[in-house]
User: Fold this.
Amino acid sequence: MSTRNVRKDKTNGSGTSVLQKNVRIRDVAEVAGVSTATVSRALSNPELLTEATRDSVFAAIRATGYRVNKAARTLRTRQAGAILVLVPNLGNPFFSQILAGINERLGEHDMSVLIADTANLATAGEFLVDHFLNSQIDGVICLDGSLPETELEQFRKNGVADKIVFACEWVHSAGLPSVRSDNVEGARLAVRHLHELGHRKIAHVTGPGDNVLTHARRQGMLEERARLQLPVRDEWIVRGDFSLESGRSAAMRILELDEKPTAVFCASDQVAFGLMSTLEAHGLIVPDDISVVGFDDIELADFYVPALTTIRQDRRALGTKAASLLLECVEPKTTRPADRLKPVVVGVDLVVRESTAPPKNASVSATG
Amino acid sequence: MSTRNVRKDKTNGSGTSVLQKNVRIRDVAEVAGVSTATVSRALSNPELLTEATRDSVFAAIRATGYRVNKAARTLRTRQAGAILVLVPNLGNPFFSQILAGINERLGEHDMSVLIADTANLATAGEFLVDHFLNSQIDGVICLDGSLPETELEQFRKNGVADKIVFACEWVHSAGLPSVRSDNVEGARLAVRHLHELGHRKIAHVTGPGDNVLTHARRQGMLEERARLQLPVRDEWIVRGDFSLESGRSAAMRILELDEKPTAVFCASDQVAFGLMSTLEAHGLIVPDDISVVGFDDIELADFYVPALTTIRQDRRALGTKAASLLLECVEPKTTRPADRLKPVVVGVDLVVRESTAPPKNASVSATG
DNA sequence: CATTCTCATGTAATCGATTACATTAATAAT
DNA sequence: ATTATTAATGTAATCGATTACATGAGAATG
Assistant:
């Protein structure tokens, strides 16, 4: 009813409420009395414009309720303004904080975050290349180190390999940028803690065999065990896969041993929960009968019974740093390509709670 | 090394690896000896073409390694081929399975799934409208019922309100499509189970005050309590917010009561964990001293100590159904708009584990 | 005062796919 | 044989923003 609000031109018949008002950059230009180029500049390079024109453009933008059409921009600039995060398993609460960190950092740069679960992806490589060549994404943060070499090869072949960074996990073969916790040190801390409590017979439930984290944590564990000259037994290294269920079966294995460990260092908190749950179901008390240390420090660790002693990863930092690293790859500024390849390592901490205690009948003196 | 693996076609001179090969639809057309229109049709309406042309087009597509440029398509068709999921808190493992369900269903329709955490979003409404008008998304699945009315108003004003479906949570005020569990029934089942074990004094830790789930579950709880003529006490209804931490404080509140309940029905598994953790820390044994029931049945429920008796929601079904519903809104086929507004209700089950048992000194006979 | 240089802005081509409309060939109807 | 009809394909406009290049107005220089 008022005088100057309408742009009736394209009332596409239907008459109803479907006011598909399509404010284009041209409309803004018209209102502001400038060219579309000027409007575009006001948005991307405001410093090129007179303060006067700039103001009038922004006024027009506000007046019209204009929003950039991302599809058009993407088509022209070949930049999607979005990145994709590949998660091995969204069901694992471990990843949430990382995602939050990624979101936080990329949000500052007006980038959207797509998330895909590799479990749902028959062919992650195909999928990714597709998205890249589609200009649907500008980069990838991969939290899954188990991408087969063939898929990585696809990336290289299609020239998108340099827009991928790994976080948490990584692939040793290929020199790709990554952000990771100090897993070896974490494992050392765990074993040292148990040793200081007086434990000597320490078991370890690993992750899946081909996983880089499995390797790093096992290695740290073995190193520290050797350094402290602790007894060694093959059966004390139990294969797991980071899952609750594998904690359960590890517990079963351990319960069957004739020479039982007095403490177990688990490769993840989930494993520790599965383990403790099963141990308790079989009448063992944690930590009285057996101590348990986890890895990750997910939120629940503090709320388990008993509260879990574990190695804290700074998941949020992992997320933000991965995002920053990716931004460097996508829109390089400071770093040189070579510098990006050195893994960014985030420190870890031991968080002592209630799942660890001195072993039952042990003289807690010793070396100290 | 083998003979037939190579596709050397477009070695565009440069020799190096940066093969920015930009296969456009025009290139395919050229190779196939047809027009771009025909190629486009081969992709979207293959039945319009002769088998012969169709074949040659697909051959050309394969030969060139062509991939549709989504940005261009989106620009032209105004369809993004992507939907956005609004999650209240990615850290809550409850949501993962729902996301998996959504992914599964939408993947079948070549739709990407964007995920955003409302916690990181200052202004969800603004954000969404932006994405819609940007043609970055075709629809939204919202898992967060706490969107303020003002934001919903924005949706309506911008004509995007009919491309939103709620899942799990919903907004009562606005008639928007939704998929939800039978929360009232779930609460009834929980109370009934406790009653059958012999409990009479039953407490309830609710969700946050303004939440629809809080309301539904509390209502179901109150209904069943009334039906069974159980004693009523205001202090037995404790305000929580679905979080671990709120379970902890609820426990503190309950520990201070002079007339203590013998069982607690928690509005979420997380609350139950927080509660049990704190009760045990204060020397109470679950279920011997007090029984606890949760709601959700997240994976960890079976691995807690004691394993949690809880109400199972079929999260995956919630996800797939929400996705299907949204697809109906976005590309309507069978249903009429009005039919979409009736909430889709997914059934729930009681899963009995070890956190519930008859109360300490109770005659387990009674009514039955 | 003429000339060169800057700076702000405009003009128009372009990104790649879709699709209304036009054209042609093939078939059916008169 | 001629016209009407249908089916298959082509032509070219279009979606909306960006940006190389062009233009023109002042400022600076000689």
Summary: The first strand of chain A starts at residue 82 and ends at 87.
